[in-house]
Amino acid sequence: MAARKLNLKQKYGHFTRGLDWEPSYQSKDDIFPFAKYEGIKVHDWDAWEDPFKLTMDAYWKFQAEKERKLYAVIDSMAQNNGQLGITDARYLNAVKLFIQGVTPLEYQAHRHFAHLARHLPGAGLRVAAQMQSIDELRHCQTQIHTISHYNKFFDGIHDFTHMHDRLWYLSVPKSFFDDATTAGPFEFLTAISFAFEYVLTNLLFVPFMSGAAYNGDMATVTFGFSAQSDESRHMTLGLEAVRFLLEQDEANVPIVQGWIDKWFWRGYRLLTLVAMMMDYMLPKKVMSWAEAWETYYEQAGGALFADLARYGIREPKYADVAKAEKGHITHQAWTIFYNYTHAAAVHTWDVDDQHLAWLREKYPDTFAQHYEQRYLNWRDQADQGKRFYNNGLPQLCQVCQVPMAFTEVDDPTTISFRVSEFGGDKYHTCSDGCKDIFDHEPEKYSQAWLPVHQIFQGNCGGATVPEVLDWYHINQGADNMDYAGSPEEAQWEKWMEGRRPAAPMAVAAE
User: Fold this and answer.
1) What predicted TM-score, i.e. pTM, was given to this entire model?
2) What is the rounded distance in angstroms from the CA atom of residue 115 to the CA atom of residue 113?
3) Shortest CA distance to 430 belongs to which of 259, 261, 269?
4) What is the mean pLDDT of residues 328-353?
5) Which domains does the chain have, with CATH numbers?
């Protein structure tokens, strides 16, 4: 009689819990030392259910098929000079921010999910963490392979891992992940798998990748949508992980709620960079940041938290503040980058009339009243050969590390500024959300590595701007400064001149 074929659930069971064992000469507390110190109570690890029942052999088959399609697109782009098919070289500044800011986070996620795959006591959850660790490494690799094509032709991409560790604006995403990976295992799961992956990832991958497609970058959009199918699985696993914790013990509810409040706010502040990319760096725009926020957070997130209310979970604290700020933060972020482009590995530029009209249409309650005149003044200065650069150093928020340029939610003419005291010193934060985070763990955030502080302390290559930029590995005059007049603009115009149709020759009169 032929052996009975196992169904999916049975195969999954053999590949996960079937490989687990009970220790005989070491206690579980010694084997899994990080499982209890956060106060989370788990009574039945076998209650964890992977909604996908994904086993390793099935995983390789799915991912191999996606890899074949992605690398076919990458090869096609290289062979057909795909860099010439994008709408405008200014678009590449969004790609530069992506590889400088996001790709190293994928690698950090790979490392820490591998850590969880060793240290979580439940066999099912360990396997899920192992799968996600491999996913994150794949995302890092495919992003590097895709964007490396642009590195042959454009500036600012050559040393992104070094820049990620040192550049002032990249300390925003870096500090986010440093914070998560130095937390306990369950806080990390809530931070990355739930708050970031489930609540906020769509704001990064869906509208931005649609923008990449709309601007002719088919390689980037292919890896984006390839990764998004993994992200969808991560999102479901993240939601299941939170539900698992909530169902194990009522005492877990306030702990998880506190983490949701914290990591929603940290993720929202991190996405300020994405907001600016969408509204200012895409020559052809798909949707505004405010529209994306309404679709992917207010509607989708609202339904999520309505569902979680049965466990006693409410919408994140300060979600109302984020909703109220959606008409402001993107313009304030562009202002920061415009001021400090000379110290960045991306270009900025003056906003033209067509772009101003689009911003007025998308932000009818805020843009013309609070921001447009500022842009017009800067453009006038640039036209006179006096392009404005801020030669000071910005004060950074002690928690999110964004320069302190955000305004009070009910008064866009006043900078939002909060102060905490710890150990006899004062620490400054940009919002009530960041102040709450600092005040809850001042021992942790008082040690934050702030780029501006490090410059003042002499730890960044020297006391002058050129010395600091050398330390950043910025190729001065090429990677930084305004796009107008840059070598990149000159190269792009030269390429486009050769691709424009020749003017018809005049026919001589007989």
Assistant:
1) 0.93
2) 5
3) 269
4) 96
5) 33-344 (1.10.620.20), 352-386 (no CATH)
